[in-house]
Amino acid sequence: MNSEITKYLQELKKYLRRLDDSEIKDIEDFYTEYLEDAGVQTRAEIEEKVGTPRQLSLRILADYSLKDDGKESGGILPKTNIKTAWLIILALLATPATLIIGVALLGVLVAAIGVAFAVAVTIIALAGAAIFITLTSLYVGIFLLFTKLGVGLFYLGIGIIGIGALMVILPIIYLIIVTVVKMIANFIRYIYRRFNKKGVR
């Protein structure tokens, strides 16, 4: 094997530490054969063919994250979706041909994170206020129960309604957040697959 190919693959393996040893070995075997068949001799020829080790590793990690998502069931966690989206954006940013798309997707992701953060802060504030009102109503209701029965029961009722509303609304909010994150990740996956099929590096 060409020493330049060996050096290149050793550098590539440093970037692929997230993968299993067997997967890294498969990748090394594939690219060894690919580069030898291509007849490349110098580092410049290798990088012209497959990109720098960093660029290639980002594409490989993005491909593997897409493959791993396909194995999992429908209950993919938002954290997994965000990680996959981030790897795909990095892969698109690493290649000059898809740099504009990567920058656009990064902008979309930053905007989505900003909106999600604003919505999350609002939801947390509203949930906090609802919890405070619920607990206050329960406290006042229990306190007034022995002095003014009607008023105490009224506040207890408001507190119990608040608990019920929170038990219904909080899971719905969580489901909405998970769905939005999943939709963004699926959109980014779609863009990556579309450009990956065209052979854009």
Write the layout of secondary structure elements.
Elements: H1 3-15, H2 21-38, H3 43-50, H4 53-71, H5 78-93, H6 99-145, H7 149-197
Helix pairs in contact: 1-2, 1-4, 4-5, 5-6, 5-7, 6-7
Note down, in words, how this protein is organized:
The protein is mainly α and 201 residues long. The chain has a domain at 74-197. Helices cover 85% and strands 0% of the residues. The chain is built from seven helices and no strands. The protein has helices at residues 3-15, 21-38, 43-50, 53-71, 78-93, 99-145, 149-197. Helix 1 runs antiparallel to helix 2. The two termini are 25 Å apart. Keywords: Membrane, Transmembrane, Transmembrane helix.
Query: What gross morphology would you assign?
Result: rod-shaped
The helical percent reads over 70%
Q: Structural class given helices, strands, pairing?
A: mainly alpha
Gyration radius, in Å: 26 Å
Protein name: DUF1700 domain-containing protein
Transmembrane segments: 85-106, 112-135, 142-166, 172-192
Pfam families: HAAS
Keywords: Membrane, Transmembrane, Transmembrane helix
